[in-house]
Design brief:
Chain lengths: 414, 264
């Protein structure tokens, strides 16, 4: 089977196009980061996922099926939108939004989910579990499971169930079972713990459809590869529109999937600065934030060596963000590596800064972003003022804000 | 300090399996953990695993999660874990620390191994450290003279069992089933086969844990393993007890029942 004419992706797009040193080594390491710190019981399952994925990513039939779903179901390619009125608050810099908010289910998460749902079939498994914070990954997973006839169980912290109630209802409507997680901080990190507990118990029938570029090898690599399409498309689109590459690429960083998704195609372009924006919550000085890369230290969380918010004895410190999708005390190991190598730069954006950008984009452009994505927009406002009107900034608008209306109503007294 | 080697030699001479009990430091209180673990030794445990309470215990079921959470709320720190090891070692049992990797990593592997040895600990069990990542920990543990115990599971193919067993000193921990910690109504059917597969790879003693909670189950496991590991069932007794004194007599009672089981 050959890849259809006019297809979106090629094998090279999926596997990374050969940028030197950007795949993990055979232990799943990006530099000193990554690896596998999980119970031995799960190693065979991780090995199996890695093996099946290695076969799939060079199999034209798999690529063609993924490509088909991305085009006919997820709504790819997504457009880029130049936002001229928004650019006024960004120092006049030319701002281009990569519109992942326009995908089916409303966030970039659908890309990874469709890839891994196909992988689940290839693994011969019938049941899918996933964690979710904002609910976007849960909704996307429930959607793909409905489409492909897979049983679906979603773990979600009780705090997140409350702030993203609409997404809980969506997942249920899509036929998923949503399990509220009431231990620990009752947010994303505890949902991940619970999903791992389920996986080790039901691994014979179940694939853990991990939602971000964190976790044990091979998840950081697989999720990145399935999200790469964002940057692959955007790079072509920016070249076509402007005749050149952007000066900077900006994205919000929770676990890091939308950021790596848009960054990755640009890693080899030395002139393109990569900026990731983490949630600074109430301000890093208050201790209530999710600035893992900028304020954290190197440790192990959820099976991977990376930057972690932890105390002096390695206990995880609970994170805070107004945005459920960024409220996570860990981050993907490849971002840790990009930080340490200096290839990408990471910054904190407070709740207040993000909510300001959220409302500005709505009023100037008629686009209501996800609060997660609003962190990238707030970062872009600062970056644009630094770089000035000559600069072009590509921003990953990772999702739409429908799910955040409850939070916005409270925040703005709407 | 009692070593694992002497424990298993003695058990073998008695033609019985060794009894290994688990309790997190700081639970039900910092001193209460020392008292409860000491009672467990007096009533028949040969080895005690002191759990190092960690915020994200992803291999543990609800019972241990609950106990560990209480220990953290009690302000349990690594110094308290070491103090617990020291206190329990006085009872004559071999004392191990069971911990996820990150607390050791953060504390400093060399410092942890040294402090544990100085506290009279005989080694560690690290359930999320795999052979690929275990090299540096094995080195510093060997330098401090403490044992390193790692886990195998029913899902482990023979090559993995071999790789894990090569990293172990003291014994190999065989998880009886695919799942998290917690007492079950029956011991996993896969346990006996797993122990057999371990024996084909190693001469080290093989102990079975996960899901064991009664004297009858201990007797069953003792029929094919060198040691029987019990955790959640002890914690359950303490959680259900109305006060500390009745908690102590409840764990004592369970330890005697299990000790009779490994001798049956
Ligand atoms: C719209 C949106 N953006 C960003 C994120 C953060 O995740 P990641 O950093 O993996 O992209 C989420 C997570 O739920 C999300 O829903």
């Amino acid at each position: 089977m050959t890849i259809a004419e006019g297809s979106l992706i090629t094998a090279a797009d999926l596997v990374g196009g050969g940028v030197a040193g950007d795949d993990p080594d055979d232990r799943g390491r990006f530099g000193v980061f990554g690896g596998r710190f999980v119970p031995e019981a799960l190693i065979p399952a991780l090995d199996e996922v890695a093996k099946i994925y290695a076969e799939a990513k060079t199999d034209p039939a798999f690529i063609s099926e993924f490509d088909h779903l991305l085009r006919t179901y997820a709504g790819r390619p997504t457009t880029i939108t130049e936002v001229r009125r928004f650019s006024e608050v960004a120092g006049g810099a030319r701002v281009l939004l990569k519109r992942e908010d326009l995908t089916h289910t409303g966030a970039h998460k659908i890309n990874n989910v469709l890839g891994q749902a196909l992988l689940t079939k290839r693994l011969g498994k019938t049941r899918v579990i996933a964690e979710t914070g904002a609910g976007q990954h849960g909704v996307a997973t429930a959607t793909a499971c409905a489409l492909l006839g897979l049983e679906c169980v979603i773990y979600m912290g009780e705090v997140d169930c409350e702030r993203q109630a609409l997404n809980v209802a969506r997942m249920k409507l899509l036929g998923a079972r949503v399990v509220p997680v009431g231990n620990g901080s009752r947010t994303l990190k505890d949902a991940i713990n619970e999903a791992f507990r389920d996986w080790v118990t039901n691994v014979d029938t179940t694939h853990y459809l991990f939602g971000t570029v964190a976790g044990p090898h091979p998840f950081p690599e697989i999720v990145r590869d399935f999200a790469r399409i964002i940057g692959v498309e955007a790079r072509r689109q920016v070249l076509e529109l402007t005749g050149g590459l952007p000066d900077a690429v900006a994205a919000a960083v929770g676990g890091g999937s939308n950021a790596i998704g848009i960054f990755h195609a640009f890693i080899g372009d030395e002139g393109v600065a990569l900026h990731g924006y983490e949630a600074a919550g109430h301000g890093v000085e208050t201790g209530e934030h999710a600035c893992t890369l900028t304020e954290g230290s190197i440790g192990v969380l959820h099976g991977s060596r990376t930057y972690v918010l932890q105390d002096d004895e390695g206990q995880t410190i609970e994170s805070h963000s107004i945005s459920a999708g960024l409220d996570y005390p860990g981050v993907g190991p490849e971002h840790a590596w990009l930080k340490d190598t200096g290839r990408a730069t990471y910054h904190g954006i407070t709740d207040a800064e993000a909510m300001e950008a959220f409302s500005i984009l709505a009023r100037t452009e008629g686009i209501i972003p996800a609060i997660e994505s609003a962190h990238a927009l707030a970062g872009t406002m600062k970056l644009g003022r630094e770089l000035g009107p000559e600069a072009t900034i590509l921003v990953n608008l990772s999702g739409r804000g429908d799910k955040d209306m409850g939070t916005a109503m409270k925040y703005f007294n709407l | 300090m009692t070593t694992l080697q002497t424990v298993f030699e003695k058990a073998r001479a008695d033609r019985r399996a060794a009894l290994v009990g688990y309790l997190p430091a700081g639970f039900p209180t910092k001193d209460g953990a020392i008292a409860a673990a000491t009672a467990m030794v007096e009533a028949g445990c040969d080895v005690i695993e002191i759990g190092l309470p960690y915020s994200d215990p992803l291999m543990d079921g609800p019972t241990i999660q609950d106990a560990v959470h209480r220990a953290l709320v009690n302000g349990t720190r690594i110094a308290d874990v070491m103090r617990t090891v020291e206190g329990v070692a006085k009872s004559g049992a071999a004392v191990l620390v069971m911990t996820y990797w990150n607390p050791i990593d953060r504390y400093g592997a060399e410092r942890f191994a040294r402090d544990l040895a100085n506290a009279g600990g005989t080694g560690t069990i690290t359930p999320d450290l795999t052979p690929e990542e275990a090299g540096p920990w094995r080195e510093v543990s060997a330098a401090s003279g403490i044992d390193t115990v790692f886990l195998v599971a029913p899902s482990s193919p023979d090559e993995r069992i071999q790789a894990v067993a090569e990293c172990c000193t003291g014994f190999v921990y065989a998880a009886s089933l695919m799942g998290v910690t917690g007492a079950r109504t029956s011991v996993g059917a896969a346990a006996e086969g797993l122990v057999k597969r371990c024996r084909a790879q190693t001469d080290l003693p093989v102990c079975v844990g996960l899901g064991v909670g009664t004297g009858a189950q201990a007797a069953e496991v003792a029929g094919y393993a060198d040691g029987v590991i019990v955790g959640s069932a002890f914690i359950r007794r303490l959680l259900d007890a109305p006060d500390e004194a009745s908690g102590l007599s409840a764990v004592r009672e369970l330890a005697s029942e299990l000790a009779a089981g490994v001798r049956a």
